[in-house]
Structure formats: structure tokens, C-alpha cells
Design a protein that fits this description.
Elements: E1 3-12, E2 15-25, E3 30-34, H1 41-48, E4 59-66, E5 69-70, H2 76-81, E6 86-88, H3 100-107, H4 117-131, H5 133-137, H6 148-161, E7 166-170, H7 178-195, E8 198-203, H8 206-212, E9 215-220, E10 223-229, H9 230-235, H10 237-243
Parallel strand pairs: 3-8, 3-9, 6-7, 7-8
Antiparallel strand pairs: 1-2, 1-4, 4-5, 9-10
Helix pairs in contact: 3-6, 4-6
The chain binds adenosine-5'-triphosphate.
């Protein structure tokens, strides 16, 4: 098993946002975690990536096993440094005053002491440009001048530059026009099929998430209420009513 989340709780002060959730991901899978506003999706991803919200420390209990070993005491930068996982955060957070290429370059920092860094960088960049030709066309353009969809592509590209084969995405469909959204998910599926990259995607947009992932979990106010294959979830009356518009 690549990732096993065991009875994870996350609290902000005396507010408990996650009440002990458990789920797992095998290497090579595409899994989704769907849930409405405030269900605890971002808290889950931040906890897995060992990040915390700048405005409020998260107190966590339970366990997160990566290939059988607990990472609860591991620093976020160690996960990146060792190419274990990378997060595409909500809101993208790319550097607006740097070009596309500079944003990508910066993301490959974990290879800075590697004697093969130039070759590794150009291979990874080629992969990103192959997946997202728009980024190649705009490689000298500053991040802030990209459209929302292009910024999302850059945020995904940046995680690929880390060399991680497990990527997590926080609401990648947010604010994207349908065409760009499907372009993004097609690229992610290619990554999974051709590079065996494992993907965890959290989404409020259950329809697109269940089309994209093979399996999923439904998170409701800090608890996982149901799970199953995407077909099972899409046919589940409760999921249909609450997340798929009836
Ligand atoms: P959204 O889709 O709106 O981003 P989410 O599913 O990602 O929501 P979280 O952002 O993880 O949900 O929030 C889960 C719960 O934790 C919510 O009830 C939220 O109000 C609470 N919460 C988040 N951040 C804090 C904080 N800094 N202080 C107190 N409560 C917080």
C-alpha cells in the first residue's frame, strides 16, 4: 500500500475539522475524495503533505503511513526532498513575477545538489511541455499574465518537476471553463497511464471527479460517510442527491 490514513483527526484550537478518517491508496491508482465546502478536504491534504495553515496551527492525531512507515513526524520539505509526494494547492500559488520556465526551475530545487540536475530538469520540463503545450508556448511569460487554466497547468507542472510519483490536487477544477478543465484531467490521466503517477484529487465537483477517478471516498463534515468505485458512488442515491444534483 502506498498510503494508509488511519483514524486521522485534525483540529484548529478547539474546533475538530476531521473526526478520525481512514482511507488508503495503492500505487498507480487515481482516487478522489469528494465533499462540499468545509467538509475537510483541504485539511486532509495539508495533513498528508505535512503542511499547516499559516493562520492556525493544526493539531493532528491518528497516523499516516507511507509504504508502511509513519510520516506523522516527517517535515514537509523531507517529503519533497525524497520525491515522496507533492501537492497542487488550492489557489495554485505560483510566482506571478517569475516566468513559466522560472517557476518550473524553482520547483526542481530538490535536485540542486544532484550532478545530473541539468539533464533531470530538461527531461522533467519536456514532460510538462508535452502534457501542456500551452505552457511551452508561454514559457517566457510571467506567471501573473497566464489565464486561470494556464496557472493551474503550471501548478501541476511544478509538482512534476519535484520528481514525485504521487501527486495530490486540491480542487483543480475550481474556476476553470469546462474545456480547460477536461484538458487538465486528460493530461492527469495520461500521467497516470504513461508514467504510473499515483493521483489523489479532492473535489467539490463530484461529477468530474467521479468521471476521472476509478474509486473514491465521500467526506462530510469531517467524516468519511461512504466509499466505493466511481460507478458505485455515482449510482448511490445519497451521493446523487447531495453531490450530483439529484
Ligand atoms: P473548502 O472546499 O471550502 O475549501 P474544505 O473541505 O477544504 O472546504 P477545510 O478547509 O479543510 O474544508 O475546513 C474544514 C473545517 O475546518 C471547516 O469547518 C473550517 O471552518 C475549519 N477550519 C479550517 N481552517 C480553520 C482555522 N484556521 N481555524 C478554525 N477552523 C478552521
Amino acid at each position: 500500500m502506498l498510503l494508509e490514513v488511519q483514524n486521522l483527526t485534525v483540529s484548529y484550537g478547539n474546533i475538530e475539522a476531521l473526526h478520525g478518517i481512514s482511507f488508503n491508496i495503492e500505487r498507480g491508482e487515481i482516487v478522489t475524495l469528494i465533499g462540499a465546502n468545509g467538509a475537510g478536504k483541504t485539511s486532509t491534504l495539508l495533513s498528508l503533505a505535512r503542511l499547516t495553515r499559516p493562520e492556525a496551527p493544526m493539531v493532528q492525531a491518528g497516523d499516516i503511513l507511507y509504504e508502511g512507515k509513519s510520516i506523522l513526524k516527517t517535515d514537509a520539505h523531507m517529503l519533497i526532498q525524497n520525491h515522496l509526494m507533492a501537492l497542487v494547492p488550492e489557489g495554485r500559488h505560483i510566482f506571478g513575477n517569475l516566468t513559466v520556465q522560472e517557476n518550473l526551475q524553482l520547483a526542481a530545487f530538490s535536485y540542486r545538489r544532484n550532478p545530473r540536475r541539468a539533464a533531470i530538469f530538461s527531461e522533467a520540463q519536456e514532460l510538462v511541455f508535452d502534457l501542456f503545450p500551452r505552457l511551452k508556448e508561454r514559457r517566457k511569460q510571467r506567471g501573473e499574465l497566464l489565464s486561470g487554466g494556464e496557472q493551474q497547468m503550471l501548478a501541476v507542472g511544478r509538482t512534476l518537476m519535484t520528481g514525485s510519483d504521487f501527486i495530490m490536487l486540491d480542487e483543480p477544477s475550481m474556476g476553470l471553463a469546462p474545456k480547460l478543465m477536461y484538458e487538465m484531467f486528460r493530461a492527469l490521466r495520461r500521467l497516470n497511464q504513461e508514467k504510473n503517477i499515483t493521483i489523489l484529487v479532492v473535489e467539490q465537483n463530484a461529477k468530474v471527479a467521479l468521471e476521472f477517478a476509478l474509486r473514491g471516498y465521500v467526506l462530510k463534515t469531517g467524516e468519511i460517510i461512504t466509499s466505493g468505485t466511481s460507478e458505485e458512488l455515482a449510482a448511490n442515491p445519497e451521493v446523487k442527491k447531495a453531490y450530483l444534483g439529484g
